[in-house]
Amino acid sequence: MAIRPAEQLIHKAAWLYYAHGLRQDEVASQLNISRASVAMYLRKARETGIVNISTSTQLFTDDVMARRLEDAFDLGAVWIAPENAYLADPSTDIAVLAASVFLELVKKGDRIGVAWGRTVYTIADIMSYADLQDVTVVQLCGNLGAPYSYRPDQCTMEIARRLNAKGLNFYAPLVLSTEDLAQGLRAEPVIRDQLAGIADCDLALYSVGAVDADSHLVKCGALSAGEMEALRSQGAAGVIAGQIIDAKGEVLDCSYNRRVISAELASLRAIEKRLMVVQEDTKFEPLLAAIAGGLCTHLVVGAHMAERLLQHAGAASKKAS
Amino acid sequence: MAIRPAEQLIHKAAWLYYAHGLRQDEVASQLNISRASVAMYLRKARETGIVNISTSTQLFTDDVMARRLEDAFDLGAVWIAPENAYLADPSTDIAVLAASVFLELVKKGDRIGVAWGRTVYTIADIMSYADLQDVTVVQLCGNLGAPYSYRPDQCTMEIARRLNAKGLNFYAPLVLSTEDLAQGLRAEPVIRDQLAGIADCDLALYSVGAVDADSHLVKCGALSAGEMEALRSQGAAGVIAGQIIDAKGEVLDCSYNRRVISAELASLRAIEKRLMVVQEDTKFEPLLAAIAGGLCTHLVVGAHMAERLLQHAGAASKKAS
DNA sequence: ATGCAAATTTGACTTTTGTCGAGAGCCGTG
DNA sequence: CACGGCTCTCGACAAAAGTCAAATTTGCAT
Lengths: 321, 321
What we know:
Two copies of one chain form a homodimer. Chain A has 16 helices and ten strands.
C-alpha cells in the first residue's frame, strides 16, 4: 500500500468536507492528494460511520394513525411506513425505516439486545454505519445449528459491525434435544451470565415470527411442520427470540420451549426500549400476541398492518365512534 | 405559491434520497416533480435538520494532548483543534469543532444554558441545523441594553432556531445601575424562576471573557475601560456569563457583580455538562480561572492554547519528567 | 536482495448534482 | 377583477462528485 490512508487522513478529509463545507478539490489541495482520493476517503468515512447522515423519522410518527395506535395499544412510539406503491419493495421500506429508528434510539454506552430472523437481518443489512462508542450488542438467544443465512449470531455481529460496537455472541444452540440438557446448559456460568445480562440492556431489536411451516424454526429443522401445527392448536400464536408464545404473549407451556436457550420474556420486558419491527402482513396475530405480552414499546409497521391493528382495537373496545 | 411544498414533500424527498439512496432524478420521477425541485427540497431538508450530517469529533479527543489535558485538569473531555495552518482562519476551525461537539452532546429533551459573546455567536452561526424535539435553550444572563451583534438573547435565539428548539429569553438587563435595583429585580417571580431553572440544565455552552478594554462589557458600556482596569488590579481574572471571576473561579466581590443579573456560579456548576470554548490565545488566564472554578467539564480549545495549558500544569506540579 | 501481490493513488471520463433566471400559480388589495 | 408581490417550479447550463483502469508504491515472502 502506498501510505496507509490512516484513519487520521480519512477523518481530516471528512472534517474539511462535511464540517467546513469545502469542495472536494479544495480538500484535495489542502491535503496534497488527488481529488479522486478525496472522493474515496469520503466514501470510506461514510462507510465507517465517521460521518453520519441520518434523516429524521419524525414524519412517520407524526402520522395520525401512529398516534391512534400508540393510544390504542399503549405503546411508547409507533412508526408507520407508508405503502403507497412508493417503491418497488414495500418491505424494504419498512426495514429502512426500522434501521433509521433503531439508530435514532441507540445512545452511546448502550447495551443492545438483538434477536434474529429475516426482518432483523434485513435491517442489519441496510443499516448505515455509525461510530458509537462503548456500545455492546448482545445476542438474545442461542444459535441455530444449521448454516442458515439469518442466523442469530450473524444478526448480532452484523449490527455490531455497523455500529462499531462490541458483539457478544451466544455460544449455545437455540434448541436442544432434551429438557435436562437445556436446563444444565442454562446453568453453565458462561450461558447464565449472558442470560442474566439481557435484562440490563437498554434497547432490544426483534421481530415476531409466525407459527406456520414457513417459520425459520421449521426451515432450520428445530421443529417439523407437523410439530408446528400441533403447537398452533395448543395455542401458539407467535415466535419471539426463538420461543413460542401464546396469544397473551406468555411462553407457551410445551416441551419445545423448555428445550430452548433464549432470553426469558421477563428479561425482555425489563429492557427499557423494545423495538419491534414487523414486515409481513401475515404476522398480524403474532404481533397482537407480542403486544399483549408487553414485548414491545416501540413499533415499526407498514400502513396496512397499522390499519388492521386499529380495526382490531376498535372492534375490541366495542365503542362505536 | 403554486403548491406549498409541504414539509411532507421535503421529508419524502429526503427519505427517498438519503435513506433509500435513490438518485435525485429517481426521486423526482417518484414524486412527479422536476429534478431541480428535488435538489431544492434536499437543500431545505438539510437546512431544516430533517436530515442530519454530522462528523465524528472522535479524532480531536483521541489526541494525546487532549488526554493529558483531561488528566491534568480533571476535565471530562477535551477537544483540540489542530492549528496546523490548515485553513485560512484558525478560530473558525475551533468554532466548527465546538459546534459539532455541542451537537454531539445535546440530547432530546435536554435543557441547554447558553451564555453570550463572540465565540458563542460564531458557534451558533456556523452550527448546522438539527431537529431536536423538546429541547429548551435558556439564556444564562441578562441582556445588554445596547444594540450589539452578539447579544445574549441573539445567541440564545439563534441556537434555539438551529436546533428547532424553544428559546427562553431573559427579560432583564445584564447590569443595573444600583445594587438595590438588581436585588429587587432578581426577586421578581419571572426572573427568579428563570434563574432557578438554570441549575436544571443538562448542558451549558459558554466561553470566558478577558478582563481588558476589548471585553464586550466595555464595548457595550457596561463598564468603562478604567473600571475594567481597576477590577483587574482587584483580582479580576475573567468574565463568565457577564460576571467577573477571580483567579480561583469565584465571583469577585465588587459592586459590578452585585449589580449583574446572571446565573449564579453555583447553578452553573450544578449543570452536568459544561462546555467551554475558547478561541483566543489571549484568554489563557481567564480560562485557567474558569477551570479552577470548576466551571467547565468539557473543553474545546486550539492546539496552541492546549500546549500552554499543559506547560502550566507541568510547571505547577513541579514534577520534572 | 528481488519479485509478487495487494492496495492506493491518480488522471480522464461519465454521471450526478447545484444553480440561475424565466415563467406560472396563488393571494390579498385597490 | 386586474395588479403587484410572493413563492414555487422548471429547463438548461455549469459545477462537482463518482468511477474506472492503469500506474505506482509498498509490504512481505522467497
